[in-house]
Specification:
Strand order of the largest sheet of chain A: 5-9-4-1-2-3-10
Number of helices of chain A: 8
Number of strands of chain B: 13
Largest interface: A-B, 94 and 77 residues
Number of helices of chain B: 7
Order of helices and strands of chain B: EEHEHEHEHEHEEEEHEEEH
Oligomer: heterodimer
Radius of gyration of chain B: 22 Å
Strand order of the largest sheet of chain B: 9-8-7-10-6-1-4-5-11
Helix content of chain A: 25-40%
Shape of chain B: globular
Helix content of chain B: 25-40%
Number of strands of chain A: 16
Structural class of chain A: alpha/beta
Radius of gyration of chain A: 22 Å
Chain lengths: 330, 253
C-alpha cells in the first residue's frame, strides 16, 4: 500500500534553492491535512550543509545520495526509482519544474508505471485522493486530474505557485539517511566536445522582483529603447510575452505565462500586452497591475487595476523626462 | 541513416492567436522546428526522414505538410483504441511504432503547444532504452560513425556534444514559420500518408488510449484563472496620469 509523500529536490541548489523550499512547504501543508509522512530526497553535492537547514522545516526523513545528477539525468533517475521501489513506495511524489526534473519525472513514471501530471499549479487532497490542477489548451481551461490504475502519483509543480510560508519546527525529529546507489556503471553516452558559458543567457530569476515591466507585441523597437532606459535607471527588470521570445527580442528566461514563469510582483506594468490568457495566467497573483496599451478594447484592460490608453513610447518618454527633472532638483 | 521525427497536430487557434477560426489543425510549431533542423542536415548526413504522428485520421491533410518540409515518409498511427491517452499511454504507442520502424535515432520537439507537458520525450526514450538529449539547438556535421554531433543550448551555456546512438533528441525551440513554397505543397499533396492501427502495432488496447493511461481528467472548466479587476482608466497622458504611474512605481520599488 502506497503511503507518504516524497519530495525530490532539484540538485542544482544554487539556482533552485527557493523552489526546493516551496515544495517542502507545500508537502508540509498537505501532510497537515492527511497526516502523511514526508520524505525528501537530495542528490546534490552539499548534503551535510543542506541537511542542517532543511531538517528544521518539518519533514520526517531526508535521504541523501551523491550522484552526478546535474550532469547525467540517468544516475538521478536511478536514485529516485531506488527510493520509490525499495524505501518508501509513496502515494505522492513532487518534483520541481526544471528541465532536468521534468525528464527524470517522465523516466521514473515510465519505468514504474505511475501517474504523471506535469506543471501543476495546485495540489489538493480530497477523500483519500490527490487532485492535480493544471492549465490546458493555452491556459484557456483548468483541468483537475486524478491518478488511476496505479498506486503512486507523480507530479511536477510550476515554480512560484505555492503561497505557503515555511515554518520552523525546532523539536520535530528528522532522520538523515545516506543511500548507496545500487545501479552499476552507466555507459558514457555523450561527450562534451566544447563548452562556452554565455553571460547574456544566464538565467534571470524574474520571480523575485517586486516590480516588473512586461512588454508585448505592441512595443516596437523605438519604444523598447525608451523602456530599456527606464528599466536601467529605476533598476526594474523587464519581462515579456511569448511572441517576443519567438522573435528573439527577449531571452526565454524573461518570459511570463503558461509556457514561461509565474511571478508575484507587488506591481506589474504590462506594456503593449493585449492580455491573452496564456500570459495573464502567469501574473494573476500580482498585487497590482498597470496596463499601458493603445487599444482601448484590449482584454488587458479587464484584468488590470490601472489602465492607461496611450502610446508606450510616449508614456515612457514622459517617465524619463520626469526622472531627469527629479535629478536636476536633487 | 534512417531517422524518425515525431510530430503532433494541434488546434490552429493555439498557434495563431489572431485567428478567429475554430476547428482548424496545424503542425505543432515545436515539431516544425525539429523537422526543419533535421532537414538542414539531410544531404550531408545522408538522412532518410520518417515523420511519425499519433492522432486522428483527420490529421492526414495537415501531415502532408511534412513532405513539403522535407520528410521522405510520413506515418500516422491512428486507432480508436489510442484515443484519450495521457503521456504514459502516448509514449507507449509512439515507442511501439518506432520499434516497428526499427530506427535508432529519434527526434522530438520540446513540447506540444496544446498539452505543454513535454513528457512524451522522456517516456519514449525510457521505453526504447535510448539515451535522451534535450535542449538541442541544431545538428552539426558528424565526426564519428554511430554518434551524432549536436549544439546544445543549456540554461547558461552553449555546448557542442557528441551523442552516441541509439538516442532520442529533443530540441530547444519552436518555429512559427514553415517556409513552404506553393510548388512543394502541391507536390506534397500527391504523396501518401502511411496509416497504422493498433493491429499493425500488435497492440490490443489494454496498454494504450484511456485504458492504458495512468491519469484521468476529472473536471475541466473554462472558468478563467484570472480574476477580473475594475480598473481606474486614464485615456490621456496628463500630469495626473504620470504622477499616478510614478507614485505606484516608487511605492513598490
Amino acid at each position: 500500500m502506497a503511503d507518504g509523500i516524497l519530495v525530490v529536490l532539484e540538485p542544482r541548489v544554487n539556482r533552485y534553492h527557493k523552489v526546493n523550499l516551496q515544495l517542502i512547504g507545500e508537502a508540509v501543508y498537505l501532510a497537515g491535512k492527511n497526516g502523511q509522512k514526508i520524505t525528501v530526497l537530495y542528490t546534490g553535492e552539499q548534503a551535510e550543509e543542506y541537511y542542517v537547514e532543511l531538517s528544521r522545516y518539518g519533514m520526517n526523513r531526508l535521504i541523501c545520495t551523491k550522484t552526478s545528477a546535474a550532469n547525467d539525468y540517468r544516475s538521478f533517475s536511478e536514485a529516485v526509482i531506488q527510493v520509490i521501489e525499495k524505501r518508501i513506495m509513496p502515494k505522492l511524489v513532487i518534483f520541481p519544474d526544471s528541465d532536468l526534473c521534468r525528464l527524470v519525472a517522465s523516466i521514473t513514471t515510465t519505468r514504474l508505471g505511475c501517474a504523471l501530471t506535469a506543471e501543476c499549479i495546485e495540489l489538493r487532497y480530497e477523500e483519500g485522493d490527490y487532485i492535480f490542477v493544471r492549465t490546458a489548451l493555452g491556459a484557456s481551461c483548468i483541468a483537475e486530474i486524478k491518478a488511476m490504475n496505479c498506486d503512486t502519483a507523480i507530479c511536477t509543480v510550476k515554480n512560484n505557485v505555492f503561497q505557503g510560508e515555511l515554518q520552523i519546527y525546532e523539536n520535530k525529529e528528522c532522520v538523515l539517511e545516506w543511500m548507496e546507489q545500487e545501479h552499476g556503471e552507466i555507459d558514457v553516452y555523450y561527450q562534451v566536445v566544447q563548452e562556452k558559458v554565455l553571460e547574456h543567457l544566464k538565467t534571470m530569476d524574474i520571480g523575485e522582483e517586486r516590480v516588473l515591466i512586461g512588454i508585448g507585441r505592441g512595443v516596437d523597437s523605438a519604444a523598447l529603447e525608451v523602456i530599456q532606459e527606464v528599466s536601467k535607471r529605476l533598476k526594474i527588470e523587464l519581462a515579456c510575452t511569448r511572441p517576443l521570445v519567438e522573435s528573439q527580442v527577449m531571452p526565454r528566461c524573461r518570459q511570463i505565462g503558461q509556457s514561461g514563469a509565474n511571478v508575484k510582483p507587488a506591481l506589474y506594468i504590462a506594456v503593449g500586452i493585449s492580455g491573452a490568457s496564456q500570459h495573464i495566467v502567469g501574473v494573476r497573483d500580482a498585487k497590482k497591475i498597470i496596463a499601458i496599451n493603445k487599444d482601448r478594447n484590449a482584454p488587458i484592460f479587464q484584468v488590470c487595476d490601472i489602465g492607461i490608453v496611450a502610446d508606450a513610447k510616449r508614456v515612457f518618454t514622459e517617465v524619463l523626462n520626469y526622472l531627469s527633472s527629479q535629478e536636476v532638483t536633487l | 541513416m534512417n531517422v524518425v521525427v515525431c510530430v503532433k497536430v494541434v488546434p490552429t487557434h493555439l498557434v495563431n492567436t489572431d485567428t478567429e477560426e475554430n476547428g482548424g489543425m496545424v503542425l505543432n510549431p515545436y515539431d516544425v522546428y525539429a523537422l526543419q533542423k533535421v532537414v538542414e542536415r539531410k544531404t550531408d548526413l545522408d538522412l532518410y526522414i520518417t515523420c511519425l504522428c499519433m492522432g486522428p485520421v483527420s490529421a492526414e491533410s495537415v501531415l502532408k505538410r511534412c513532405y513539403a518540409l522535407g520528410a521522405d515518409k510520413v506515418v500516422l498511427v491512428s486507432d480508436r483504441l489510442f484515443a484519450g491517452a495521457d503521456t504514459y499511454a502516448t509514449s507507449k504507442v509512439i515507442s511501439e511504432a518506432i520499434k516497428k520502424l526499427d530506427y535508432n535515432l529519434v527526434f522530438c520537439g520540446n513540447v506540444a503547444i496544446d498539452g505543454e507537458t513535454g513528457q512524451v520525450v522522456g517516456g519514449v526514450a525510457e521505453r526504447l532504452s535510448f539515451f535522451c538529449m534535450t535542449k538541442v539547438e541544431r545538428l552539426l556535421e558528424n565526426q564519428k560513425k554511430e554518434w551524432i554531433r549536436v549544439k546544445v543550448l543549456d540554461d547558461d551555456s552553449e555546448k557542442i556534444v557528441d551523442v552516441k546512438l541509439p538516442a532520442v533528441i529533443s530540441f530547444s525551440d519552436l518555429s512559427m514559420n514553415e517556409n513552404i513554397s506553393l510548388l512543394k505543397l502541391k507536390q506534397a499533396k500527391r504523396k501518401e500518408i502511411i496509416q497504422w492501427n493498433a493491429d499493425d502495432l500488435e497492440m490490443d488496447g489494454s496498454d494504450c488510449g484511456q485504458k492504458g493511461s495512468k491519469t484521468k481528467v476529472v473536471s475541466s472548466t473554462n472558468k478563467s484563472l484570472v480574476k477580473n479587476r475594475t480598473p481606474m482608466m486614464r485615456e490621456e497622458i496628463t500630469n495626473d496620469t504620470m504622477s499616478l504611474l510614478m507614485q505606484q512605481i516608487y511605492q513598490n520599488l
